[in-house]
Amino acid sequence: MTDEYYMLQALKEARKAFDEDEVPIGAIIIMNNKIISRGHNETEKLKDPTAHAEIIALTSAFSFLGGKYLHDATIYITVEPCLMCAGALYWSKIGKVVYGADDEKNGYRKYVVPVPSIESAGIGPWPFHPKTELIKGVLKEECAMLMKTFFQSKR
To answer: Are 51 and 22 within 8 A, CB to CB?
Structure first.
C-alpha cells in the first residue's frame, strides 16, 4: 500500500467530520500495513477542545495495543498537526508522521522554535521524537480543498 492509499483513508475520516459539521480533519494509524485506529475531529460533539482527530486515533491505538508507545506505527493526518497533537505524537514515540495540507494558522510549525542542526538538514522545526520520520504534502491539494470548502460554507 502507498502513502496516497492511506491518506485517502484519512480523508474518509475527514469527510465524516465535515458531515458532522466538525473541522474536517481525519487521521488513521497503521502498523504492519493494517489500520489499527481511526479518528476525526469531534470537538463540537464532545464539547472537548482536545478531541482532535490525532488524539482520538492515538487513544484508540493505545487501547488496541495495550501500550503507550507506537514505535512501529505510522499516522496519516489530513492536515499538519497542531502543537498539542505534535506533543501527543512526541510522547507516543510514533515511528512516522505523514500529513497532507500545511496549516499556517494553527500548525505546529507556527509555534516551534527552529533548531539550527535540524534546520541545516532541511527538516525544519522538530516537535516529534528524534527517531520519528516526517513526510508532508501527501494528497496536499485534496486535503486543503476539504478544509477550504468547510470554512467557505461558514462565511
So the answer is: no
Q: What is the DSSP string of the chain?
A: --HHHHHHHHHHHHHHHHHTTS---EEEEEETTEEEEEEE--HHHHT-TT--HHHHHHHHHHHHHTSS--TT-EEEEEE---HHHHHHHHHHT-SEEEEEE--TTTSGGGTPPP-HHHHHTT-----S-TT-EEEE-TTHHHHHHHHHHHHHHH-
For the cut 90, the answer to whether the pLDDT of residue 111 exceeds it is no
What is the model's pTM? 0.91
CA pair distance 75, 77, nearest whole angstrom = 6
42 as an active site residue: the answer is: no
Paired with 97 in beta bridges are 75, 134
Instruction: Choose, from 44, 54, 104, 142, the residue flagged as catalytic.
Output: 54
